[in-house]
Amino acid sequence: MARVMLVGNLAQLTGGVAEFNLSATSVKQIFAQLAELHPGIERHLQEGVAVAIDGTIYQDALLEPIRPDSEVYILPAIAGG
Amino acid sequence: MTMATGTNGTATNGGSHGVVGTRTIRPDGVDKVTGRARFGADYNLAGQLVGRVLRSPHPHARIVSIDTSRAEALPGVKAVITRDDFGDQPSEFIPAGEMMMNYKDVVRNVMAREKALYEGHAVAAVAATSVAIAKQALKLIEVKYEVLPHVIDVVEAMRPDAPLLHDDLFTVGVEPKPEKPSNVAKKVEIVQGDIEAGFAKADVIIEREFKTAPVHQGYIEPHAALGTVSEDGTAELWTTTQGHYIVRAHCARLLGLDMGKLRVTATEIGGGFGGKTVVYLEPLALALSRKAKRPVKMVMSREEVFKASGPTSGATVRVKLGSTKSGHFVAAYAELKYQAGAFQGSPVQPGVFCAFAPYDIENVKVTGYDVVSNRPKVAAYRAPGAPISEFAVESVVDELAKKLRLDPIDLRMQNAAREGVKAAYGPKFGPVGLEETLNAIKKTEHWSTPLQEWQGRGVASGFWFNIGGETSVSLTVNEDGTISLMAGTPDIGGLRASLTAVVADELGVPYDKVRPIIGDTGSLGFNFLTGGSRSAFSGSMAIVEAAKQIKADLCARAAKLWECKPEQVEFSGGYVKPLGALGDKAKPMSIADFAKASGKTGGPIGGVGRINAQGAGPSFGTHLVDLEVDPETGRVTILRYTVAQDAGKALHPSYVEGQYQGGAVQGIGWALNEEYIYGADGKLQNAGFLDYRMPVASDVPMIDAIVVEVANPKHPYGVRGVGETPIIPPLGAIANAMEQATGIRFTELPMSPPRVLKALKEKGVPTKV
């Protein structure tokens, strides 16, 4: 099971729960499972978030694979100037 | 100076010519020094009109009515536009620079609707046959305002009784949801560990409040756009921008155009630094052109740039840092209040993430507020949000070092983020180079040079994430074997030179046989903008993909020509070579050999890289500055400055050093002189370079640059973005040097002569002024 953590305000959309163990094999599956558990987070996941998988930050990467022992952080999208 | 650590990439099967990492001549250099390069205002079309904008004289006013009839009747006026020429937009967030932007706000920022929300807010625009007529027409537009109370300062704007900018703005991120609107758009927070328990373990706690002023990106080239809309609905736009695909998306949306019918060309750009990631003139030029049925050219004056384009936030920051006697950081807290300008969307989120990112701290809490006030909407500025929060933290770290009687570099080293450390914003770092930059600075002769009275030395570190993102490039092999490289991200900081070097190494061709251009939106697939320190990182990854296609194609053609199996040929050193026994009957063929007869072996040769680049590696930097304070005038002179930053791999060391130097100089300006000064009337008092004092060449010494290279394992060459991190440390480094020089801890920026003089007087130092 991948360990999935929500960073910042995202946990407000899951009733304060910030950590999940999910049997997902892709970012897309993580998003789908979170949306099923907490429908209020779905729109925010679709609007654009960054996903750190085992320390590497990915953006707009729905198909990125997730390993069973992956540590995943979901955080607001990051850009720059 | 370059210091490599770890494994840095080499060409991927191209047979390295060793061009990457060398200081090649910039492909755009001759055009730049001869004046041939065409910037935004250099473009013209036959029959073009002059566009000018009428701007609000009030910082906050309801627009009761706009009467354009007299202006429209003026001979030579071909079109007048107002809010009525733009359909309203629903509330929908889209990525824009460092932040999400709401189209409902975008349409109101390019042209005021219900209210003018800052001095300089566009209220109407005209297109006329001459500048004189356009200016006269602006005077004939009658706008009736109901002037409203305004608020400029971020703390004042947060008060419950502050003048309200938007009656539908309710603070997001607080529970329960507020019942009343306010100027606080959002509260964001990150929490790691237990800060109360952490502070309980601290032997020493430093807590201070800091204030920074809004500063402008200060690009030398003002905003400029030339738009033309045809009777058949197709349109073309030339504009100085960091992202012409983003401009296309915004303009198409605001004007109801199909994206495919709008072709946008990014002109040469005279600086952007994040400030040219949004639209101002572009939709106005197109709307005027559509109405006038002629091309319309618009160029901002410097005053308009200051008053109506985004600076970055000013802010108030409170930082609390706890440490053991031995210098182990045990808890950290910060509260950030960032000005967003007239519409929500300050860079407070990255400010929150970056505040303590350089350090390994178990217990961290950072809270941020995004606050609107009657100022121009902020735009991205190099590492948006990070210089502000990291300035405050680096000042406190320095104070802690003094209190603990520890060397400030050693203290940073003891707590430094390194591979495996969990960042305050969540994930663990991969290989990063903060320790290497600290070591590099400590080894410099600069670090140990003696100082004199009224001189001070300061050090500070900085962190920025960097990003990748959607990127398209194409490589075309011309009939003579030369290569045309097309990228879709405007070249601001040496992109063409950097990417050309990668092409040369990947394909094994000489650097001067590759011609790079920046394509328009009709020539390549989507490209996210040049920002987030992404263009060389992402572009080089896309080139590797495009080059792979070319190499595979050439190998396949060779196998057919030589009537052998594909595995009997390989591409290396710029040639397709026969392997094994095949070498006796077939001679290696160069790219030029294939190019000469491409039609006979399958047609034109080329490759396209279309990727969403992932795996951007963060970049850490450490700066060291010596300065001298004139106690009689409060003037501060930068004596010496050294930057060390991790580039992963410098594709073009001179450009990387240039980024370090440019960032340092902008940071020096931010620290010492730059600020938006408002009067009690809510109007900007220093909207020009004479009164808004940016550093010029004579103000700064040569900035020494040390390029540290800790390879990014996610990039084929090890590259990390480098453009943003160097603006972060100067603010803290200079404040720390000021403390050493004067014994005064400056907590408010800029440390301009009047402020320094006031502090010296309060300390009892005799002054002249």
Question: What can be said about this structure in brief?
Answer:
Chain A is built from 2 helices and 5 strands; from the N terminus they run E-E-H-H-E-E-E. Chain A is of the alpha+beta class and 81 residues long. In chain A, a hairpin with a 2-residue loop joins strand 3 and strand 4 (56-59).
Q: How many strands appear in the DSSP assignment of chain B?
A: 29
> Main sheet of chain B, how many strands, which sense, barrel?
7 strands, mixed
Q: Biggest protein-protein interface?
A: A-B, 26 and 52 residues
Helix content of chain B: 25-40%
The assigned structural class of chain B equals alpha+beta
Please, could you describe this protein's structure?
The complex is a heterodimer of chains A (81) and B (769). Chain A is globular. Helices cover 21% and strands 30% of the residues of chain A. Chain A has two helices and five strands, in the order E-E-H-H-E-E-E. In chain A, strands 2-1-5-3-4 form a five-stranded mixed beta sheet. In chain A, strand 3 and strand 4 (56-59) form a beta hairpin. The mean pLDDT of chain A is 91. Chain A is α+β, with helices and mostly antiparallel strands. Chain A has one domain: Beta-grasp domain (Ubiquitin-like (UB roll)), CATH 3.10.20. Chain A has helices spanning 27-37, 42-47, and strands at 2-6, 19-22, 49-53, 56-59, 71-76. With 769 residues, chain B is an alpha+beta fold. Among the domains of chain B are: 2-37 and 468-613, 2-Layer Sandwich (Aldehyde Oxidoreductase, domain 4), CATH 3.30.365; 40-149 and 222-303, Alpha-Beta Complex (Aldehyde Oxidoreductase, domain 3), CATH 3.90.1170. Chain B contains 20 helices and 29 strands. In chain B, the strands form seven sheets. In chain B, strands 4-8-2-15-12-13-14 form a seven-stranded mixed beta sheet, with helices on both faces. In chain B, strands 1-29-28-27-19 form a five-stranded mixed beta sheet, with helices on both faces. In chain B, helix 10 links the parallel strand 17 (329-341) and strand 18 (363-372). Chain B is globular and about 90 Å long. The model of chain B is unreliable at 6-10 (pLDDT under 50). The chains are: A alpha+beta (81), B alpha+beta (769). The A-B interface holds A 5, 7-9, 12, 47-48, 52, 54-61, 64, 71, 73, 75-81 and B 93, 95, 97-100, 172-173, 175, 187-190, 217, 273-275, 277, 349-350, 352-353, 379-384, 425-430, 464-470, 531-534, 612, 614-616, 714, 721, 724.
